[in-house]
Specification:
Radius of gyration: 17 Å
Shape: globular
Number of strands: 9
Strand order of the largest sheet: 3-5-6-7-8-9
Order of helices and strands: EHEEHHEEHEHEHHEHEHH
CATH class: Alpha Beta
CATH topology: TIM Barrel
Bound molecules: fe (ii) ion
CATH superfamily: Metal-dependent hydrolases
Distance between the termini: 19 Å
Structural class: alpha/beta
Largest sheet: 6 strands, parallel
Strand content: 5-15%
Helix content: 40-55%
Number of domains: 1
CATH architecture: Alpha-Beta Barrel
Amino acid sequence: MIDTHCHILPNVDDGSDSLQTSMLMAAMAADDGVTGIIATPHVTWDRDYNPEQLSYINKAADSFRKSLKESGLPIVCYLGAEVLCAESVPSLLEEGIFPKIEDTDYALVEFYFDEPAEKIGRCIEEIRSVGIKPILVHPERYYEVQKRKTFLNDLVELGCYLQVNKGSFFGQFGKKAQKTAEWIAKNRLAALLATDAHGAGSRTTRVASAIESLSQKYGAEYIRLITKENPALLLKNQDMHVR
Ligand SMILES: [Fe+2]
């Protein structure tokens, strides 16, 4: 598996709080058969825009990659970001500083959980219009999506990709998120399944048992698509497959 959403970089957001934790997260992932992790620290432009944020993240990634190499763990760390989208998206796009995954056109985007569906749709369209391929993270956690799941069909039509969280299927984010994740998987709307891991305690990089049980429920072929094949296409900047 390649984990496409993970807060593994130490001390850059609410994820890993030390290099030791980051290395433990990497070891757990490798132990569960993960061969690549895209580090996706929160970038919160709307709340407290800080022009230093991206260079700080780049430095953290370089140093973490060095430690990973020294450790000999069979895992590659790629760099992306999880961008909180709202008011400032148009100016970010104008300035051409919207952070993407490595040198691809893909970008992970998130919204406040109570963001109106209409605003999410508009934002996705704006991002798409400049050639960025948005990946909406954990759609199952947004309140309006939980109320009206078919809104996700509209987003996919707009060219938005959906990434579901491993933990959502097991009730980690409540019953509504669980039901919504199940609906998404049943309807084959997700392009990616990722851990959104924040540490080595509760929201971890472990995937083996989740992949096993989700493969039984939704078919091994589909789970392979959203954990291996699509992440590989993403890193090659090719179109991912949905349905
Ligand atoms: Fe996240």
